[in-house]
Amino acid sequence: MLTRVLRLPRRTWTAGVAAVALVVSVLAAMPASGAASDACRVDYTVDAWAGGYTAHVRITNLGPAVSDWRLTWTYTGDQQVTSAWNATVTQTGASVVAVDAGWNGALATGGTAEFGLQGTWRSADPVPDDFALNGLSCGGDGGTPPTTPPPTTPPPTTPPPSAECGDAVICSGFEDQAGPEPSGDWRFTAPDCQGTGSAVVDSAVAHEGGRSLRVDGRAGYCNHAFVAHTADLSAVGPVMYVRMWVRHTTALPVSHVTFVSMPDSAQGGRALRVGGQNGALQWNRESDDATLPAQSPAGVALSRPLPTDGWQCLRFAIDTSAGHLDTWLGDEQVPGLHADGVPTQDVDQQWLARGTAPRPTALRLGWESYASGDDTVWFDDVAVGSAPIGC
After folding, report:
1. Distance CA 51, CA 31 (A)
2. What pLDDT sits at residue 38?
3. ∠ CA(87), CA(91), CA(96), 5° rounding?
């Protein structure tokens, strides 16, 4: 007789409930007779809030090695997948298919693969428990072969992000900087007004190589200090991918600060900004001061702080045709910094008020404070292009 690891009981979600993480493992256990072998194990970890969720999925292959994988399951609630990473995930009705991204397709016996997804729900979002890997059940039938063989060739997928710059328009580790003053493709600028903030090329601190860009940001309006790259980004896209390594010394303050500023032709040259507020990362649109996420307690909780005293890989994707945004801190997609055009409570109410997609034209790195908030920030290994760029 087959047994299955019991999953945690599903609680009812309401609009006032904060995000709660559930971890569910489904395992086809070996029968006492040994007549059938395990197929796989799936650990499905979901962070849910009113109207939305993210899920982290970990596959463990308990059968023979495979060169590619295809994981299927069925939602019994009204969940709808809106985006995914490290896999191609499609949904037809309640049925969901996740296919490897190519670079993570090989699974040895006992090997694992991980991917994530984000979605929405309205009335119910129970955890699925009918996972199957390449048609072999991860629970219930102990790995009985499917009636129809799974496809041997997965659908086309987006190439995996590369840590190299590839054909990026900007690819800089600041190693070409000869002196302390930014030069060449990097120029100091104070877009609105200048105070005591400063920027130098630092040869003592670097993520890789021997140099980085250091900005000593000062609190108070009119202490703007940025270094801008001379590249024109107007033609990058339709999705613009940005990757940088960031290190800073002081936790993001309660008041609003900015450390990435991109002039945006869709805003008449005003900036699309990345920074922080209420201690967490946020996007800000200068023209109407809209934020992503909304600065409610629930919205801020869906973002992440920017850890101090260590290098952090910050990546984002800006869809210049549909207006979608995605943001990753390391390999984690940040739920509160995701906008896909589908309204999500406490995330994008303000952001969707403007229907025009952003069109950044340049990249500026530095510090801009609107009240309190001194900080020292380093930038290194910066890249901007039309293809995904990994950490």
Report:
1. 40
2. 61
3. 70
Closest by CA to 318, choosing from 280, 271, 278, is 271
- Mean pLDDT of the region 345-355: 87
316 strand-pairing partners: 242, 327
Of 190, 68, 184, give the one whose Cα is nearest residue 133: 68
Asked if pLDDT for residue 1 goes beyond 60, the answer is no
* Mean pLDDT rounded to a whole number for the chain: 83
Q: Radius of gyration over alpha carbons of the chain, in Å?
A: 23
HSE toward the beta carbon, residue 47, CA cutoff 13 A:
15
CA dihedral 148, 149, 155, 159 (to 10 degrees): 150
Q: 262 to each of 231, 233, 268, 364, how far by Cα in Å?
A: 12, 10, 12, 6
Helices (H), the chain: 297-301
Q: What are phi and psi of 247, to 5 degrees?
A: -140, 135
pTM over 0.70: no
Say if CB 62 and CB 38 are below 8 A apart: yes
Tell me: cis bond preceding 64? Omega within 30 of 0 counts.
no
- Tell whether omega for the bond before 293 is within 30 degrees of 0, i.e. cis: yes
Per-residue b or e along 64-94, where b marks 16 or more CB atoms closer than 10 Å to that residue's CB: eebebbbbbbebeeebebbbbbbbbbebeee
Residue 160 has pLDDT above 90, yes or no: no
φ/ψ region of 102 (left if φ > 0, alpha if ψ in -120 to 50, else beta) reads left
Sequence-distant (≥ 6) Cβ neighbours of residue 137 within 8 angstroms:
28, 39, 130, 131, 143, 144
Tell me the one-letter amino acid at 64.
Answer: P
- Which neighbouring-strand residues pair with 81? 119
pLDDT, tens digit, 9 for 90 and up, residues 351-384: 998 888 999 999 999 999 887 788 999 999 999 9
370 class by beta-carbon count within 10 Å (0-12 exposed, 13-18 middle, 19+ buried): middle
pLDDT of residue 194: 77
Residue 126 pLDDT greater than 70, yes or no = yes
Q: What is the mean pLDDT of residues 24-52?
A: 60
Residue 295: HSE in the Cβ half-sphere, 13 Å Cα cutoff: 15
